Description:
Helices cover about 35% and strands about 15% of the residues. The protein has about 375 residues and is α/β, with parallel strands linked by helices. The protein folds into two domains: about 5-40 and about 285-385, Aspartate Aminotransferase, domain 1; about 45-280, Type I PLP-dependent aspartate aminotransferase-like (Major domain) (Aspartate Aminotransferase, domain 2, 3-Layer(aba) Sandwich).
Amino acid sequence: MTVSRLRNIPGIGVDRIGDAADSLHDADILRLENLDTDLRPPAEALTATHAAVDDDAANSYLPFTGQRALREAAAARVGRSAGTTYDAAGECIVSAGGLAGILNVLLAILEPGDEVVLTDPTYAGLINRVHLAAGVPAFARLTPSADGWRLDLDSLAAAIGPRTKALLVMSPSMPSGFVVSRDEWLAIARHCERHGLWLIYDAAMERIVFDGREVVHPAALPGMRERTITVGAVSKEYRMIGWRVGWIVGPSSIMDEVRLVSLSNVVCQVGIAMPGAAAALTAQDDGVAAAVAEWERRRDFLMDALVDLPVIRPHGGWSMLVDTASLGLAPPEASRRLLEHGKIAATPMTHWGPNADRYLRLVFSNEAVPRLRDIRERIRRSWQT
C-alpha cells in the first residue's frame, strides 16, 4: 500500500524516457529529454575539485551548514543579484543541490494542508516536493503567445486563498523557459505583502536569459528582502550537475528553522564538491555568458527549424514546449513515436501542472546545432507532419 505522502506523486516522466533511450544503446538518438549539458564547468571548479579529493578537510561532515568559503561566496552571489547584503553565517546554508534546498525550505515553513502557489506549467519535482512537505499545490497559469509565455495575473490572484503560505516561483522556469518580468515580479510582491506570504525563489537558472532580457531578483523589490528565500545551485548556470551543491539564502527570521530541517534531513553536503562550487562562484570568468550565448544559439536554431510547429518561444532556460495536442497528438504518444521512428528522446509534460499535459518538452542544453540539423525531418518521419 502506498503511504499517504506519495499518493499524489506520480513521478516526473524524465526517468522513464531516459531509461528507454539508454536501453537502445544508440548514439544517434537526440537526447532532448533531460537537463544535462555538454558544456564544460569553469576550469577553476575542476581544479579545486581535483585538489579537494586529496584534502582531508574536505572529507568531513563539518561544518553542517556548509564550508565557510562557499557560504560567503553564495551569500555574496545572491546579494549582488538582489542589490543587498546577506550574512554568510546567519543567512546562508549550503544544501545538497537546489531541490534539496527547496524541500528543506518547504518543510521549515509549511503546516500540513498549507497551500503553495506555483506556475502552470512548472517542474514536476517542485510540485512533488510540496506534496512531500504535506502542502497543497495551487497554480497560476502561464499563458502562451506568439512571443512566449506570460503570467496570467488574474489567475495568480485567484490561486491565493486563506491557506496560502508561500509562492514558489522559478525564473527562468522549467519546462517553459518563462522569465518573470519586472511588472510580474511587482504583482507577485504585492500579493506577498498583502497576504503575508513567503516567496521561495528558485534561482537555479537566473542568468540563463535570452534576447538581452533584464535579470530581476525579487528580493531587490521594496519590502521583499524579508519575505524572499532564494534557492540556487551550481548545476545549471555553472554546468556542474554532478556536484550536487546548492544554497539557501534568506532573512535571519526563518533561517534557524531551515537550518534545523537541513540538519534533520540530508545533514550535510558533498564535502569534496564544495571547494569546486566556491571556485565557480568566485571565478574571474565563470563561463556563464559564453554558455548562455551557446544555449541561445541552439534555441534560435530550433525555433527556425520548427517554425511550422506549435512551439512556444522560451525567453531563457534550457528547454521549450511543443503543443502536440493542437496537432491531434497526445504528448505520450508523440514521445513514443519520436523515439521509435525519429530517434529523439523527449518527455511528455504529464503531471507538470494542470494544463501542462498538452505539451512535449524539448531540451536543447545537451545537443549541439550540428547534431540537431535534421530534427525537423526526424519529427516529420515520426508524426507525419
